[in-house]
TrEMBL record:
This is Alpha/beta hydrolase. Transmembrane segments: none annotated. Belongs to the AB hydrolase superfamily. It comes from the Bacteria. InterPro entries: AB_hydrolase_1, AB_hydrolase_fold, Pept_S33_TAP-like_C. Pfam families: Abhydrolase_1 (PF00561), Abhydrolase_4 (PF08386). Residues 29-139 form the AB hydrolase-1 domain. Signal peptide: none annotated. The lineage of its organism: Bacteria, Bacillati, Bacillota, Bacilli, Bacillales.
């Protein structure tokens, strides 16, 4: 029997009656939430985890075929919830974990109270003029070509594109190091799963209320994407952030905390 807690390096803290669970974006692990998650420990049980292949997860359990679909990552989230006997959970997902949380909530909505989606994107590829995803298919294929030929060079290129905030190079360096610490084969597979998935048709199937946090000047999930998600996601709220880039929980943790708190307070989920 697989040890779910060990597989995903699940960490539990806090003392509150309700659970808030944080999922990291592509190429990242739970450490990326260290500026935000501790704030919620006073009023919530906080659950952090690493996707298989990322961070301190059990990499021996990574299966390329299994994890070629976001549905498998969503299944892992539900297995963590089952192992911890979690229901009525607030799920906070960054980037691809937003979609993973959405897919999990469609499968077992009773386990979720609300979704908080930080920089979500159901599809990264442009289908102009009807849909702006942020990337031309040819540009993405070029990124994968660079990934194959020069993985370090790929990380050096992508990290500043994702992070922005050029005045804080330490954040870019941390993201670059996170990319480089991941097995290149796993990273490539996860990148392909992330950037070539199309979950637009799944959005109307969501029944759990949600908050979309949209950064400005986000090259990965531009404003058009956040607004598309809001239009097609039932019972959703959209908040525009002053934060720039694609990782506000790292670059602008105070604003991230404040907006999540505002949303939870409006929905009677915090003191």
């Amino acid at each position: 029997m697989i040890d779910i807690m060990r597989r995903n390096h699940v960490q539990v803290s806090g003392n509150g009656p309700q659970t808030i669970m944080f999922g990291a974006g592509f190429g990242c692990d739970q450490k990326m939430w260290r500026y935000v998650a501790p704030h919620f420990e006073e009023n919530y049980q906080v659950v952090l985890f690493d996707s298989v292949g990322m961070g301190n997860s059990d990499v021996t359990l990574y299966d390329a075929k299994k994890y070629s679909k976001l549905d498998s990552y969503a299944k892992d989230v539900l297995e963590i919830m089952e192992a911890l006997n979690l229901n009525n959970t607030i799920f906070v997902g960054h980037s691809v974990s937003s979609m993973i949380g959405i897919l999990a909530s469609i499968k077992e909505p009773e386990r979720f109270s609300h979704l908080v989606l930080v920089g979500p994107s159901p599809c990264y590829i442009n289908e102009l003029p009807d849909y702006v995803g942020g990337f031309d298919k040819e540009a993405l294929e070029g990124l994968f070509d660079l990934m194959d030929k020069n993985y370090i060079g790929w990380a050096n290129y992508l990290a500043p594109v994702v992070m922005k905030n050029v005045d804080r190079p330490e954040l870019t360096k941390e993201l670059e190091d996170s990319f480089c610490s991941t097995d290149p084969v796993i990273a490539r597979n996860f990148a392909k799963t992330t950037f070539f998935s199309d979950n637009r048709k799944d959005l109307p199937r969501v029944t759990v209320p949600s908050l979309i946090l949209q950064c400005k000047d986000d090259s990965v999930a531009p404003i058009e994407v956040g607004e598309y998600v809001h239009r097609h996601l039932p019972n959703s709220s959209l908040m525009y952030m002053e934060a720039t880039g694609h990782s506000p929980h790292m670059s602008h943790p105070e604003e991230t905390i404040e907006l999540i708190e505002q949303y939870l307070q409006r929905n009677g989920l915090t003191k």
